[in-house]
Amino acid sequence: MERTVQTEKENEYRMQTAGNETRFRCLDIARGLGIMLVIVSHAHGLSSYLINFYIPIFFVISGFFYREGRSYREHIGKKAKRLLLPYFIYSFILLGIYVVLGRTMEETKFSLFGILYSRFCLYDMSTHTDNVFLFTVANGAMWYLTAFFVTSLIYHLVIDAALKCKRNLILILAALLAVTMLLAELPVLLPWSLDIACVGTIFMIAGTLLGRAGFYEKGCRLWQVLCVLAAYLLLSFCNPGINMSVREYGVYERWSVPFFVLIGITGSMLCIWTAQLLEKTRIGAAVEYIGKNTIILMAFHIFGLEVFHMIAGKVIHVEQLSGAAEFCYIIARVTASVCGCLLLGKGIDAVKRRCGKKKTER
């Protein structure tokens, strides 16, 4: 009887999620909030309480959209098309721009190596003061695309087994956590973020479980929000120094990993609840649109920030700004970068449609 009820719940979940993903607008809004925090952080810096979850949230949301019934090859093929094609195309566009701007052959070769290695730097930043920084063509945020792809390779290998029973789920989560902790103190950051793929998989599994538990449809009570908020703030206070992109999980070295997982999940829950509050507002609609264009923003927002800073530097003394003037400058810089990326995305979509139309006509 219990098995029958479970099967009925699973079938109901498949029916609810197999069709229209846009039904869950709050998830696109949450993505939009996440990418905006990324951009503002790169433009000026933010409190750790606002950035500790802004990468995990993307993995958590992606886990929600898991579809049963597809083969492993189908899942990975879809991810490769969505993530790797933009990664290499946009990376080489940026590289070409910097070559036109005067990059030497040696600098270009090094930038090319950075694109292929796909990591912000080579060594653990907590132990090496003479690090080698690999993303040199304003592509520092694009590590996420290859990291997400590698994480997906693991996630789609284990997710069906993890969903079969609680025993499997516990064993898989424990194994992923153990591997992450073993890799946490390597002196070298592995290419394509191989060393953080297991913790990324944990976040994706968490997203799948939250989705199946109806977290996105259920209303939240104030006491639940306050409890999760208190847990997030306390964990973030006790374990500062998080930067997932360079494998920094906090101040306790490998023992920071469990804290980081809890911080990422509780922070993601708070972000989604915030998105639900914005769902029926004009601000929510704008952030939702931004959330649907995260890849183009990941790829080009740093370049946009640098161009704006360079142009502004010819008109004003940016370094001397403070107070309200500095705040207005940051808002203008972020807005210009976001709008520029969105316009570029519109242009790329128009080219794709035109090319698709020509293929159809042939």
What key phrases describe this protein's structure?
single chain; 362 residues; mainly alpha; two-stranded antiparallel sheet; 14 helices; 2 strands; 70% helix; 1% strand; globular
Task: Explain what the structure shows.
- Helix 2 crosses helix 11 (257-278) and helix 7 crosses helix 9.
- The protein has a two-stranded antiparallel sheet with strand order 1-2.
- With 362 residues, the protein is mainly alpha-helical.
- It has 14 helices and two strands.
Largest sheet: 2 strands, antiparallel
Percent of residues in helices: over 70%
User: Which secondary-structure class do the elements indicate?
Assistant: mainly alpha
Shape: globular
Brief sketch in words of this structure:
70% of the residues lie in helices and 1% in strands. It is mostly helical. The protein is globular, with a radius of gyration of 21 Å.
List the helices and strands and how they pair.
Elements: H1 2-17, H2 25-43, H3 48-51, H4 56-64, H5 72-100, H6 105-117, H7 143-164, H8 166-183, H9 197-212, H10 222-238, E1 242-243, E2 248-249, H11 257-278, H12 282-291, H13 294-313, H14 323-361
Antiparallel strand pairs: 1-2
